[in-house]
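Re: Re: ligand-bound prediction request (bumping)

Still looking for help on this. To restate: I need the protein modeled with magnesium ion bound, output as structure tokens. Inputs repeated here so nobody has to scroll up.
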Amino acid sequence: MSNNVPEMYGSLVFNNKIMREKLPKDVYKALRKTMENNTHLELDVANSVAVAMKEWAVEHGATHYTHWFQPMTGYTAEKHDSFLTPVGDGQVIMDFSGKELRKGEPDASSFPSGGLRATFEARGYTAWDPTSPAFIKDKTLYIPTAFCSYSGDSLDKKTPLLRSMDVLSKEAVKILHKLGQTEIRTVHTTVGAEQEYFLVDRALYEKRKDLIFTGRTLLGAMPPKGQEMEDHYFGSLKTRVSAFMHELDEELWKLGVPSKTKHNEVAPAQHEMAPVFETTNVAVDHNQLTMEVMKKVAERHGLACLLHEKPFEGINGSGKHNNWSITTDSGVNLLDPGKTPAENLQFLVFLVAVIKAVDDHADLLRVSAASAGNDHRLGADEAPPAIISIFLGDELAAVLDSIENGTFFEQQAKVRMETGAAVLPHWSRDTTDRNRTSPFAFTGNKFEFRSLGSAHSVADPNIMLNTAVADTLAQFNESLEGVEPEKMEDAVRELLRRTIKDHKRILFDGDGYTEEWVAEAESRGLLNLPSTPVALPYLVKERNIEMFVKHGVLTEKELKSRYEIQLEKYCKTIRIEDRTLQSMLSHQFLPALMTYADKLSESIQRRKAVGTFGCEAEMEQLGVITDAYNDIYKKLAKLKEDTATVEGMTDMQKAAEFYHDTILADMEDLRTSADAVEDYLPQNMLPYPSYEELLFSV
Ligand code: ADP
Ligand code: MG
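Reply:
Sorry for the wait, this slipped through. Here it is.
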């Protein structure tokens, strides 16, 4: 392995440098134009690019290419074709055309479509996304693509994401022009997705059906030590973990994924990786790639990487933070307040637009973070509450106050930090401390949406965010229409004043984990959507459909299909968990209890035969085991009955609610009983690895 990181970085990516080297000048220019201005690419250009791409890929050992896409499963999909083309005489050449680069035709009938694709309409199309670079993995050229049905409906997450980036750019440029920035032609949103994960020993992982089938443990008593010592967060890395992280970095760097930060997280066996931010579309692709590579590299180190939001009960689960901002084509970060935010009108316009967008469409952000896995986190005291609110920090809150009240904002001088030790550096303190409990926090020059689960695609939140902000900017543009340039600043300030007044209810700087906040949020009229079945219907609320349709991001049909798919995914997830739990209890846990009860009774009998021992302790122990057996057996019967009920339900929304309210509650109840008796079982009689082994053996 080369130690030269700059040389290694992007070595498997058909990136700008390679394109410049390999493509004829005019082709290169046309392609760059497409990438920078989001314009259409002609077939002759595509042909040229295809030839260069194939040559480069073959030089790097590739034999196949694949259109890589993101169906609504939330995972990625790929079908590999070889470059091989027969030319007669039993000879072949390696060939690849512009047509093959631009368009693929996978059989789409096995991907979720939520009723979008009639069964006779099996054909689907993948279309090359030239704005996300192609790369080589496993001797295959990966071409990022969008995926749609025969009738043109979007069946993926990339298409609406690209549409949402376009519409945000359009509306942002319009308002920037009004503010005098007439040379700006496009803006793009940027995303840095921080990724949390767990690592457990692979051999142990393979002995747990629940981890294999559901990604989380459905049973398991807490070990003597959990996360209470707070010694894992930022703790020194164990040798095996460190080796994993080194290889992960290298693999990601070769693929052009700018992995930057790595550290231990709060829970034992939990870790985090954060990349440098990129254009949203690329960041989304790269986060998908990161999750895949994490799993692969873990395998090579005898580890299993768990991306589930809540692999272990009783200790923190994993999330994903979506850091988001907007940048102009001249490289200006529109959410950078600069030294004097109160005077930075352009910044304030975008800041206030985000505030209004989040207040108006908090439901959509909540939906984007909704999944069976993430339901275990949101609202529990380890992750942001299910209520969406915004943390701004003292300084910006004061700036907005002054605008709303028409008062003068006095900039506070930055506080100098001195540690008292001569050798240590001095610095000026940030104007705001962090707030870890806020779901949507301003963090200096970007917003950080923290409600997402670790397994989520970051496409969804960004589709919502981009569209909602675009919609707000469109409203701003409308209300500023026809204002004379010399009156613009006053008009904008008045617009901001009104908007702040109308939407400041979404601002909250306090502790989001408290009961008081839940009550306070309710009195402010903020939504509290505690679970996925409750949240999902908001996706198809009339006003949300209107917004998506108005901006051409998603059609009504596409939205309804997405709602159905998510609902179905939720039901299936819990159904699999339900069956797995039943199987573990029936085939593993109850038999283990039975065996142990037999052992105890035999031993009691034997001892009684020897003399007049009372065997009180053993009898008591046997009682505990037998009671637990009965208890679990009965609860399991109830779960089976309820399972039969839900499997007979035809209304998917009702079924989802039943899964949440009844099946999950049954499962939880069973778990409580099983975990309580687990402590009475001898270590070698537990039929699968314990929490202790899973969490502390790497
Ligand atoms: P913090 O410590 O406040 O979380 P970092 O600078 O470590 O901030 O950034 C965390 C994540 O935010 C990283 O993935 C980083 O690349 C990303 N980020 C930083 N600036 C931006 C930006 N302008 N747009 C999007 N993401 C950003
Ligand atoms: Mg962060």
